[in-house]
Hints:
By secondary structure, the protein is mainly α. The protein contains 5 helices and no strands. The protein is 78% helix and 0% strand. The protein is globular and about 55 Å long.
Amino acid sequence: MAPVGEAVALVLVAVLWGSTGPFLRTGAAGLEEVRHQGRLQQLLAEIRFLGLNYKYMVPFLLNQGGSVLFYLTLASADLSLAVPLCNSLALIVTLVTGRILGEDIGGKRAVAGMLLTVLGVTLCVAGS
């Protein structure tokens, strides 16, 4: 079984990754209206729009913090446990956070998928 510290770190990674996704979508709203001539100027204008937008940058930095924590945790965690645990729990956290923010997550099928994901993660953790 995985040490408790590793499991907590991996769950924290999943929460950081999953909870920031819906906020990144919200923070990037309005990016489509940024228009400039030329590809390079368009790219720089989009980077400026996102970089100066705290509604985008705060979740982005939290998400990147989760990536750093994931990288550090991989040094000691079992890779066959870490990757499925983080990715599947991040999906669940994304759906729950999106629902809290008013996004449509897909109804009963999404809930059934989340329950099956939790069952699969439980089996992975119990088997390691």
